[in-house]
Amino acid sequence: MTSGAKHLVNDPSNLVIESLRGLARLNPKIRLDEAQRVIYLPASDRVSLLSGGGSGHEPAHAGFVGPGLLDAAVCGNIFASPNVAQIRRGIDLVTGDKGLLIVVMNYTGDALHFGLAAEQYRSKGGKGDVRVLMVGDDVAVGREQGSIVGRRGLAGTILVYKIASAASDRGDDLDQVENVAKYVHARIGTLGIGLEHCHVPGTKGGESHLGASQYELGMGIHNEPGTSKHDLSSVSELVASMLSKITDTTDKDRSFVPFRNDGTDEVVLYINNLGSISELELGGIANEAIQWLSKKGIKVRRAISGTFMTSLNMPGFSLTLMLLPGPNEPFTSAQILELLDAPASAPGWKWTASEPGTLETQDKQPASTTVADNASLAPADSQIFLDAITRACRSVIEAGPELTKQDQIAGDGDAGLTLEAGAKGILKAIETGNIDGKNVIRDIGTIAEVVEEDMGGTSGALYSIFFSGLGKGLRDAAKSGSKSTTSEIWSEAAQEALSILYKYTRARPPSRTLVDPLQAFIQALPELGLSKAADKAHTAADKTRELVAKAGRGAYVNQEDLKKRDVPDPGAWGVWRIVDGLRGYQGKP
Fold first, then answer.
1. 189 a known binding residue?
2. What is a single molecular function from GO for this protein (predicted)?
3. By C-alpha distance, which of 119, 256, 104, 100 is closest to 178?
4. Which of 63, 78, 73 lies closest to 14 in space, CA to CA?
């Protein structure tokens, strides 16, 4: 079944009107005509702006009704154009003596219905003139294929009516507002991708359209199939492919925006979430897009990112470039940016910076621990010490998928990635010589810093506290006159580290946490040695399958369900994999 087939609704047939009622209750500046499903502002003395179309693209378009943006939005059913009566009502509500510009996406139903409503209004002699601009900014479909219907309208539509509205606010007449809207429309290109199709509330969940590692390029916002399917790799490659298609002028069939590609192009970059891409991922997409454009000599004057025009809950995004004016154009770059930067207060419009972003970075300094007393303690054998650490890290990395699967049942699903990040950080420190096996006090201190920085979160803090405590125990041994480590010194230092850890966590065995195998290992270490102590850790980690979680995220999970799933605590299992690696993978992986 397609992902995202669950929805929070009363009755799917009432979802649109209930959503509009909620929007009106949240925003005191707007009004709702329930019968015709028109969200609008009280009439004002300016050229009015109206948009609309099928619902399911929220916040577009109703969420952009507000000062500095739209005067009205007419809402159809999900993915269906509103009818002529609805649109006529919207026109009647907001058209004044200065006229109205209708800005809608280029789809057949919208073109027919909005166009007919405008013509009917004109024929009956309304207050002011009404113009219609159909926006088509999609670059996925070439001129030959779309020769009759033209380009589809996508997220770039919002940039058109944002700029047109700002022109209206400063006092431009209808001709001037229409002219600037047409100008920016001709300089906008958008391309979207989907990781899967969306699901319409009230319909049967369909089968997945894409493989687990596929994405669809050029997917429409109404579940229309894209132009091609591809294997998903890195976001940098994906963004590069999308921006290349928007800026390419060599393919005359798909070259819609007049990029010069000579190092003088300036753009507004507009990143739009199509429904269910996380803000975390959007930030990464923005980073890659700005970097790619910069490397191509295209200057990003403004960057806008957020959820503007969705396709319900589609896991996907679109990239839009608006090419700013060059020499000998009817407008200047400064004039267009001034309109884009003009204040607007509508729920759907996200704050944007009125200047290019900057990224000031410093070269990352290698993690290191400063030891004030210069204490030094050599391992019994430097290579054996480094090999053991390396094996432990590789053991954790290999266990990543297993730990993640466990944590998807017992926690938040990040255990494998978190431990893997720490392990890779330590391996990098060995590779760069920041951990060199010459002074275990310094090396353990470096490990404490690396795991705290690279792992983060609760696990990073717990591991860092433990390794910091381990370093203190080793330093105490050095102060007592020891020159190199022994099994007794490691055992005593580990016991001290556990005691320090217990200052900051209330978890005690049996608790279904990482302390269960950790304590079992440390207590067995003096008498049984490394290998058999690791066996004790394995037994304790495995026993967490039967335990009630008393600490950590597992404490909030349904305990009976957790027992039935017969899964060990992923944090405990991670400790077992570490100590098993230390001894050389002697236990069961």
1. no
2. ATP binding
3. 100
4. 78
Q: For position 369, what pLDDT does the model report? A: 43
Does the active-site annotation cover 222? yes
Q: What total number of domains does the chain contain? A: 2
Question: Among 127, 159, 191, where does a domain finish?
Answer: 159
User: Containing domain of residue 30, as a range?
Assistant: 15-140+154-159
Which residues, 6 or more positions from 352, have their beta carbon under 8 angstroms from its beta carbon? 302, 303, 304, 340, 341
Give me the helix-helix angle, 235-247 and 279-295, nearest 10°. Answer: 50
321 in a domain, yes or no? Answer: no
The structure tokens listed for 128 are 């002011």
The pLDDT of residue 406: 81
Q: How far is CA 476 from CA 188, 378, 482, 576, in A?
A: 67, 13, 9, 27
Is 110 known as a binding-site position?
yes
125 labelled binding-site residue: no
- Does residue 262 fall inside a structural domain? no
Burial grade of 35 (CB within 10 A; 0-12, 13-18, 19 or more): exposed
| 55 assigned binding-site residue | yes
* Cα radius of gyration rounded to whole Å, the chain: 31
For the chain, what is the mean pLDDT? 89
pLDDT range class, residue 555, cuts 50, 70, 90 = very low
Q: Shortest CA distance to 63 belongs to which of 23, 14, 31? A: 23
Range in 92-106, 116-130, 370-384, 442-456 the model is least confident about: 370-384
Determine the pLDDT at residue 414.
76
Query: pLDDT per residue over 13-58, tens digit each?
Result: 899 999 999 999 999 999 999 999 999 999 889 999 999 999 999 9
Q: What is the distance between the alpha carbons of residues 124 and 121, in angstroms, rounded to a whole number?
A: 5
Q: Is 209 within the bounds of a domain?
A: no
Tell me, what CATH number does 102's domain have? 3.40.50.10440
* Other Cβ atoms closer than 10 A to 383: 9
**Residues sharing a CB contact under 8 Å with residue 564, sequence separation 6 or more, in sequence order:** none
Phi, psi (5° rounding) for residue 336? -65, -40
Q: Quick one: tokens of 96?
A: 């004044």
Q: What's the pLDDT at 106?
A: 93
pLDDT digit string, tens, across residues 152-187? 999 999 999 999 999 999 999 999 999 999 999 999
- Give the pLDDT band of residue 368 (cuts 50, 70, 90): very low
Higher pLDDT among residues 284 and 415, named by residue? 284
Are 196 and 210 in contact by the 8 Å Cβ rule? The answer is: yes
Give the whole-angstrom CA distance, residue 392 versus residue 290: 38
The count of C-alpha atoms lying within 13 angstroms of the C-alpha of 119, restricted to the half-sphere facing its C-beta, is 7
User: Which of these, 501, 494, 461, 458, lies nearest to 476 by C-alpha position?
Assistant: 494
How far the first Cα of the chain sits from its last, in Å, is: 34
Domain end marker among 159, 186, 202: 159
Q: Is 57 annotated as contributing to ligand binding?
A: yes
Q: Is the pLDDT of residue 560 over 90?
A: no
Rounded Cα distance between 119 and 131, Å, is 9
Q: Is residue 473 part of a domain?
A: yes
* pLDDT (0 to 100) of residue 589: 37
What is the CA 434 to chain-centroid distance, rounded? Answer: 33
Q: Give the pLDDT of residue 412.
A: 58
